[in-house]
Amino acid sequence: MRMRYSLRSLIVACGVTVAVAVPATGARAQDSLRLASPDGRNEVVVGVRDGFLWYAVRHEGKPIITPSRLGFAFRGAPTLFDSLRITDSTRATYDTTWTQPWGEVARVRDHHNELRVTVAETKAPMRKFTVAFRAFEDGVAFRYELPEQQALGDFEIMDELTEYTLARDAKAWFTKATVPKPDRYEMLYESAPASILDTVNAPLTLEMQDGPTVVLHEANLVDYAGIQFRGGPEQNRTLRIALPAWGDGVKVRGRTPFVTPWRTIQIADRPGDLHPQVLTLKLNPPSVLTGDLSWIKPMKYIGIWWGMHINTMTWSSGPKHGATTANTERYMDFAAKNGFGGVLVEGWNIGWDGDWYSNGNVFSFTKPYPDFDIAAIVKHGAAEGVGLIAHNETAMGIQNYERQIDSAFTMYEALGIHGLKTGYVGDYTLEGHHHHHSQYMVRHYRHVMELAAQHHIMLVAHEPIMDTGERRTYPNMMSREGSRGMEYNAWGGEGGNPPEHETTLFFTRMVAGPMDFTPGIFDLQIKRPTGTPRGPNDSRPRTTLAKQLALYVVIYAPLQMAADLPENYEGQPAFQFIRDVKTDWDTTRVLDGKIGDYVVVARKERGGPQWFVGGITDENGRTLDVPLSFLPKGKSYVAEIYADGPKAHYLDNPLPVTISKRTVTSATTLRMVLAPGGGQAIRIRPAK
Amino acid sequence: MRMRYSLRSLIVACGVTVAVAVPATGARAQDSLRLASPDGRNEVVVGVRDGFLWYAVRHEGKPIITPSRLGFAFRGAPTLFDSLRITDSTRATYDTTWTQPWGEVARVRDHHNELRVTVAETKAPMRKFTVAFRAFEDGVAFRYELPEQQALGDFEIMDELTEYTLARDAKAWFTKATVPKPDRYEMLYESAPASILDTVNAPLTLEMQDGPTVVLHEANLVDYAGIQFRGGPEQNRTLRIALPAWGDGVKVRGRTPFVTPWRTIQIADRPGDLHPQVLTLKLNPPSVLTGDLSWIKPMKYIGIWWGMHINTMTWSSGPKHGATTANTERYMDFAAKNGFGGVLVEGWNIGWDGDWYSNGNVFSFTKPYPDFDIAAIVKHGAAEGVGLIAHNETAMGIQNYERQIDSAFTMYEALGIHGLKTGYVGDYTLEGHHHHHSQYMVRHYRHVMELAAQHHIMLVAHEPIMDTGERRTYPNMMSREGSRGMEYNAWGGEGGNPPEHETTLFFTRMVAGPMDFTPGIFDLQIKRPTGTPRGPNDSRPRTTLAKQLALYVVIYAPLQMAADLPENYEGQPAFQFIRDVKTDWDTTRVLDGKIGDYVVVARKERGGPQWFVGGITDENGRTLDVPLSFLPKGKSYVAEIYADGPKAHYLDNPLPVTISKRTVTSATTLRMVLAPGGGQAIRIRPAK
Question: What is the pLDDT of residue B598?
Fold first, then answer.
């Protein structure tokens, strides 16, 4: 028995328990305000009880969040939380539709109702703030607005007191935020009842008992700490926000007038309906980029990178240096021959020698190694339509980077480089010990994104702050890492990503936005140079080859890599799928899926008639029926199917792929047979 | 990217990495010793390299545990770990078969090979110890033996340095041991890759990539701290043992000669093969109880208990006191009428008034409340063949309990009470602040078990130390709690046990041994007294009624409760299954199952021809084909089927049960349709 906890948790929950009664027992009108989405399915109720401002959320009449409190704790000022009254409220409706420059879907409609509730303290210092709530068909969101006022000017937030009390327990899918250390979101996924969570990263996916699936995240993170969620300490259903800190422990510094990021509660009847995720886009301002934007273009790319991870090349100078002129031009020729738009090169710039992850104050971002003739390389590529994608690893030496960034970006632009991958390996900044996801770092990433836009540079950030929809405002912010990508299959004590990894990733990390996962390893048993210490249980991709192809459809990225060495693609019939697949989409449909088990996604190319379908599974083989009813009726198509071959298995027989063609129509149902750790990739093109 | 961790973990793992090479590259014969199970499927390899004693485990030639080190850290003495050499080894084979007094299975065969390896330090103080390894068809086990010697007499173990380096990553199913606090194993289950575990409870179930399923646990815990496992701090596949401490931080006190508990590694090709678990029984000594053991008898029982959890009764004295003479005799009459062997009564003894969980020094274990005439009650029950099951809650006041226990048990025996449920709510002992699972507490539980045997008392322990097979030696040790049982559905902030709870429990907690889960709630929406504050998302059993029935087959307990109030069984046709089901088994077969999703179990009654089948599912409804091929060929049976009724659903329609009969044979395949959160219970009796 566990009575002791039970009795104590009743006491702990008392303040909320009282508030819970409000909406349920028919509160007086002035006690609560209601806001519904235009389609009526999502509803927010807001009120004040016993001095606490609370909100609640319902979906189709069913409680999702029961009354949960809102407020702040400051350094050097009283908590703004427990002595509030509503002084004003206003309402509005918005309906906007726009075409995206690129994305998982071409058109987005933002149709929502808004309720702005202003509260003031009933005692000194009589501070006030507004919470803006928005109700959409795909969820709800709210943010705090702190107006300029006598009693609240400069402030230091020590804790945002936002609560999310789940109406029922939920199965949470998450990565830990704090154990063993921050780790840039690069932990393996876990699942646990939401009622016993520690501190976890965003986005947080919650399969509520008896549905729906809810994702907690944030949007329009501009000048704040990145969001995390924490449960406990006792078992209960109230989650709270945790904010990574500056070196001195302050979470957020600001001055009124000030707005927080939007706190988003995405709601989907089934997990597959989480995609395409456009809620965070609707909560970011429209694009600020004008003029000729032809330098922003989705593409596939290859790179001098995987060789360093499997020890056939080095980032550092020396006999195995990967970033040489000859090697890069070889990659560019391969790219040109196969329709890839860019070649990433890591290790091209001075600073990689020695213990590079301690070189945060050593890296140059303008000086290439002597064996890398950057101007000649860019020119070589330009002649065949292939761009150089530069690379900047900071190793968290932020000051060193910021001192050089303006001249570096000026140089890249002058050379004609329009793509850049950044890197931030490390848990804290070298100067000031600010947390990797702190407000200090959020400001830095934002600065880099804005500066890159000015210099016509598409940005891919590794070890990023999580995507909160910035790409709507800055369409040069292409994609990010922010989870365990392919590289984990090259090394690491735990044997690489487990086979269910991508089936969880799709419903968690991918809900935030595009990911630079870097799929496409064909040498799945990884030929490594002699002498490298490896054993029978080494890290390597725990997928079949067909699953590697399917990842091009399942994992969305506008800049999508073919990660393996060019020589590993030569003579491989399956490579044709990577040549054919697109990276920009008109339509996205999740046909079927279960978090952590499998998923099947169909996407239609932007500006063309082709569809691509990708299905992946975890360690269990399975057979799925895939109706092609998404195709236009009455038209005939050819499906080019890349399926797991006979006896394919991710562990000991990953390579067999069976390639076949068949005529299909919207009436066809394909039987998709997936091997353990397998996948299937399908190109559907109009019959000639 | 995460290179920094990768490089560091290689360094950390260096000592082991070297050892890894030993078995793989063809070590010299004197470097390692091999031990195989009699059927050859499980193999242990043992050796010394660089002064470290290591062991490794293989299953059908496939690595399970790669070389992992063994040793101890002491207080006030050097670590016994890193300067070892093998001085001796011996081998033996054992083959024993015995009939259990009761159990999941009637007969157990213990057929194993043993290898004893003695090591000594190569430097002062030249201590020595032996590790005994045993290889069985269902797993392997080892224990340390510390012989009497000059340099090792009295000792204080601060850390047992046993490692378990998994050959591949695994999906771990576990409860946290330390977050938010010890919690007597009563946390919700989580799953995570084994490579990122914190500290978790035993038994620990590991679904290894590409199989098999492995359970880490211990056996024959007599005078040691209860085992826990810890991962990290970096992501890797090495688990270590964590031991709860005495109040002064020491983990284990002892004096040579001394043996540790067996460290068990149960290995099953599929999760269902974990049952019936007899590995820990084989590692405990045979029964020490002799003479007339008719006082030990498996049975079903009811109790004055659930009423306190749903607030219709109180433990404490007053108008709602549950433990009254009249109430108990009413329960006894109901028990007699329906074939139950006992009535548990909680709150019968002085000490429950006020804040009872702080009453650890107040409880009397001999003095009943004035409205409970214990002698008359026992006499009333005896006349109709129903025993009183006493109850002793200690609230961790161990000293208070130990002072009274001898006279209490003497009194119970004199009255004719042969059953006792104990309780240990609290995280630490009131005196000395010893951890709930510390060696101090292990000694206490053992003392109670032995004393109960002397007084002919069957014991059911709540808030126990986990089962490590003691029931073989003391068959009066019937069952335990040790996870979240039915009571969590009566209260608690997280809304009760989630619907997948029992589908996980079966493959985790239940692998240790019988559990006093207390199934059988029929009033699934729980009628509570007016005025008790409850809301629409209150705790209540998140199962259908048919699933409640199925739990009698799925969850094994020799003393099995029908937990609901007697009045809630009146007039219920489904109650007939509880009347019919048995609690002692000749044979147990897990027909199908997936951890956390569903399970179907068939059990044959002891001493009779009947079979019982129980199937349960998580929140997903599903249809399973259940072949009855376990029945003897050529015989005709009647299956009495208790199935989820039309539109049954654990959340809003839990009650419909459809009862039907059909004739079946060993050639029949039943189609088992389970509702969301549902179940099915089947009695199969010979056709007349």
Answer: 98
Please give the single-letter amino acid code of residue B301.
Answer: Y
| A654 touching B (Cβ < 8 Å) | no
Using a 10 angstrom Cβ sphere, with 0-12 exposed, 13-18 middle and 19 or more buried, the burial of residue B198 is buried
Partner A contacted by B1 (CB < 8 A):
yes
Separation in Å, CA of B170 to nearest CA in chain A:
9
What is the mean pLDDT of the segment spanning B14-43?
59
With contact defined as beta carbons under 8 Å apart, do A591 and A602 qualify?
yes
Lateral strand order in the sheet of A42-49: A32-36, A42-49, A52-59, A62-69, A163-166, A238-242, A228-230, A199-201
Domains of chain A: 31-282 (2.70.98.10), 299-579 (3.20.20.70)
pLDDT in tens, B553-595: 999 999 999 999 999 999 999 999 999 999 999 999 999 999 9
Question: Smallest CA–CA separation between B111 and chain A, in Å?
Answer: 31
For residue B449, the SS3 value is: helix
Amino acid at B537: N
Structure tokens at A199: 């501190």
Q: What is the pLDDT of chain B when averaged over all its residues?
A: 92
Residue with tokens 């038994």, as numbered in its chain: B203
Residues of chain A with pLDDT under 50: 2-29, 531, 533-534, 536
**Count of A–B CB contacts within 8 Å?**
188
Using CA atoms, how far apart are residues B171 and B626, in angstroms rounded to an integer? Answer: 27
* Inter-CA distances, A653 with A23, A523, A546, A657, B529, Å: 58, 12, 12, 11, 62
B487 annotated active-site: yes
Kindly report the pTM of this predicted structure: 0.86
What is the token pair recorded at A600? 């099947």
Residue holding tokens 């078995």? B23
Percent of chain B beyond pLDDT 70?
A: 93
Task: State pLDDT tens for residues B428-437.
Answer: 999 999 999 9
Of A57, A70, A45, A74, which Cα lies nearest the Cα of A129? A70
**Does B462 touch chain A if contact means CB atoms closer than 8 Å?**
yes
Nearest residue of A to residue B239, measured between CA atoms = A494
Active-site residue set of A: 487
Instruction: Look up the ipTM and state it.
Output: 0.78
Residue range B631-665, pLDDT digits in tens = 999 999 999 999 999 999 998 899 999 999 999 99
> What sections of B243-305 are H helices per DSSP?
279-282
The arithmetic mean of pLDDT across residues B60-77, rounded, is 97
Residue with tokens 């002919």: B456
